[in-house]
C-alpha cells in the first residue's frame, strides 16, 4: 500500500498551479500565498517544543539550531533572517526563511540536514509527522526538488507584516529629488509609520506616489519598523542634500482592496484610501483625448509611445481567450481589476487559442481550431480595455450588448498573450482606434447641432 499524506497531495496541487503561470513567480501571484501556507502547515505538523518548554513550537527554532558551515547558501539564508529587523516573532522569522529559501532554491537542503541529525529530528518532531517520517519526508524532498525548477522573484525587503500574515502587500521603492521637506505627515501605530496626509504640490505628492494610509517602511535603506518617529527626521537631516530614497507599503492591494492588516488601524484613523483614489480620479479631465488610458501603460517610468500594430503592420494577433465575467450594468474601466481576477480564479476557464482582429470598426475573435467566431463587438459597444499590474501578459476589454450609453449588461473578456510587449501593443491598438472612433462621433454630433450643418 502506498504511503502518502493529504498535505503532500495538496502541496503537489499547489505546485502544479504555480506551473500554470509564468515560470517566474512574483509576490503578486495569486497562487503564492496558498503554496506558502501549505509549506508552513507541513513544517508545523507534529512539531514539538524541543528544548524550549515554555515557548511556542516553532520550525524556525530548530532551523536556527542546524549546524552551520555545511552549505554556504543555507548559512547565508539563516543569517539573513536572523539579521532582519522587520520580523520579531518566530512566525515572522519562519515565514521569511521560507520565502528566502524559495528564492535561494535551498529549501530541500533544510530537510536533508535535519534528517542527518536523528537526535535533533526526534527532539522536534513526532514520528507521525511528515518531516519526522522517513518515507513521507523523502516524498516531501522530491516535491521540493520540483519547486527548485521554478524561479521565485520575491522582494525579501517586503517583510514587515510577516509576523501577522502570509498576505504580501504592494511594495514600492521611490527616489525623490533633494528637498527641504517631503510633505508627508505620519503617525506610529503598532510599530508602523502610517501616512496621515500628503501636502498637495509636495515632492511626495508627485503622481500620487505616496497616499494617506500608506506605510513608510524604509528610508535611505534603513528599516522604520519599530523605530521612534524622530528617527525619520534624523535620517532626513543626516542625508540632506542628496536624493531621498523611500520604500512604501501601499494601503491598497493589487486587487484594489485595502490591505487587510491595515484595515482596523485606518478605520480608527478615519483614513479611506478607496475614497482618496476616487477623489483623485474625479479631478481628472473629462474631455475627449487621444492619449492612451492609464490602464494601457503600466510601468511608472514609461514615456515612449507604443506602436498600435505589430512590426509587420498586421492588426491580427494570436492569443489565448481565457474567459469572461459578467459585470452587470457597470462597465467602468475600474472594473478591469476585479473582472480579470474573477476570470483567473474561475474553475471554468475556456483557454481557447484564438486570433483577435482589430478593424476600423470593431473587435472580432475567431477560434484557431474551427475558425468559429467567438466574439464580435463594435467599438461603440466597448467601454474599456486594460490589464492588471500583477498579470502583465493578460489583457481584457469590457463590452456591452449594445452601445455603451444604453447597455445594461457589460461583460469583461480576458485574454493571455505570449509576452508583455504584445499585450501592450494590442491594448494600445484598441485604445487608439476606439479613441479615434469617438472623436469622429463627437465631431458628427457637434456638426449636427450647428444650424445648417450636415455630414457626408
From TrEMBL:
Domain named RUN: residues: 26-159
SUPFAM superfamilies, A to Z: PDZ domain-like, PH domain-like, RUN domain-like
One Pfam family this sequence matches: PID
InterPro entries: PDZ (IPR001478), PDZ_sf (IPR036034), PH-like_dom_sf (IPR011993), PTB/PI_dom (IPR006020), Run_dom (IPR004012), Run_dom_sf (IPR037213)
PID domain sequence ranges: 316-417
Residue ranges of domain PDZ in the record: 167-237
Name the UniProt record assigns to this protein: RUN domain-containing protein
Lineage: Eukaryota, Metazoa, Spiralia, Lophotrochozoa, Mollusca
Amino acid at each position: 500500500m502506498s504511503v502518502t499524506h493529504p498535505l503532500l497531495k495538496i502541496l503537489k496541487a499547489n505546485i502544479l498551479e504555480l506551473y500554470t503561470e509564468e515560470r517566474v513567480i512574483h509576490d503578486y501571484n495569486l497562487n503564492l500565498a496558498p503554496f506558502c501556507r501549505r509549506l508552513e502547515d507541513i513544517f508545523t505538523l507534529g512539531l514539538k517544543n524541543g528544548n524550549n518548554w515554555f515557548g511556542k513550537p516553532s520550525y524556525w527554532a530548530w532551523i536556527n539550531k542546524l549546524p552551520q558551515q555545511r552549505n554556504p547558501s543555507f548559512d547565508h539564508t539563516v543569517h539573513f533572517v536572523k539579521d532582519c529587523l522587520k520580523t520579531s516573532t518566530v512566525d515572522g522569522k519562519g515565514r521569511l526563511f521560507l520565502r528566502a529559501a524559495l528564492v535561494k532554491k535551498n529549501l530541500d537542503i533544510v530537510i536533508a540536514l535535519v534528517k542527518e541529525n536523528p537526535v535533533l529530528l526526534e527532539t522536534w518532531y513526532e514520528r507521525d509527522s511528515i518531516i519526522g517520517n522517513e518515507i513521507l519526508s523523502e516524498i516531501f524532498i522530491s516535491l521540493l526538488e520540483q519547486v527548485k525548477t521554478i524561479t521565485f522573484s520575491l522582494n525579501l525587503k517586503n517583510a514587515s507584516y510577516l509576523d501577522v500574515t502570509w498576505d504580501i502587500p504592494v511594495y514600492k521603492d521611490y527616489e525623490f529629488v533633494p528637498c527641504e521637506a517631503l510633505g508627508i505627515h505620519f503617525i506610529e501605530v503598532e510599530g508602523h509609520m502610517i501616512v496621515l496626509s500628503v501636502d498637495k504640490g509636495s515632492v511626495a505628492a508627485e503622481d500620487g506616489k505616496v497616499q494617506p494610509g500608506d506605510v513608510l517602511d524604509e528610508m535611505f535603506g534603513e528599516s522604520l519598523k519599530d523605530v521612534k518617529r524622530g528617527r525619520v527626521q534624523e535620517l532626513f537631516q543626516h542625508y540632506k542634500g542628496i536624493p531621498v530614497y523611500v520604500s512604501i507599503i501601499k494601503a491598497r492591494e493589487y486587487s484594489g482592496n485595502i490591505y487587510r492588516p491595515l484595515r482596523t488601524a485606518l478605520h480608527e484613523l478615519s483614513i479611506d484610501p478607496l475614497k482618496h483614489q476616487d477623489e483623485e480620479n474625479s479631478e481628472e479631465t473629462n474631455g475627449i483625448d487621444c492619449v492612451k488610458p492609464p490602464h494601457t501603460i503600466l510601468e511608472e517610468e514609461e514615456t515612449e509611445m507604443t506602436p498600435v500594430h505589430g512590426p509587420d503592420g498586421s492588426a491580427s494577433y494570436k492569443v489565448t481567450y481565457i474567459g469572461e465575467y459578467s459585470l452587470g450594468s457597470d462597465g467602468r474601466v475600474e472594473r478591469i481589476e476585479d473582472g480579470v481576477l474573477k476570470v483567473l480564479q474561475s474553475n471554468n476557464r475556456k483557454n481557447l487559442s484564438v486570433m483577435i482582429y482589430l478593424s476600423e470598426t470593431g473587435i472580432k475573435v475567431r477560434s484557431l481550431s474551427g475558425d468559429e467566431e467567438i466574439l464580435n463587438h463594435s467599438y461603440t459597444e466597448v467601454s474599456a480595455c486594460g490589464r492588471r499590474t500583477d498579470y502583465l501578459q493578460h489583457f481584457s476589454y469590457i463590452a456591452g450588448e449594445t452601445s455603451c450609453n444604453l447597455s445594461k449588461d457589460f461583460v469583461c473578456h480576458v485574454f493571455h498573450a505570449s509576452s508583455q510587449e504584445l499585450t501592450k501593443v494590442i491594448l494600445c491598438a484598441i485604445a487608439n482606434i476606439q479613441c479615434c472612433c469617438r472623436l469622429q462621433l463627437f465631431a458628427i454630433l457637434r456638426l449636427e447641432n450647428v444650424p445648417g450643418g450636415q455630414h457626408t
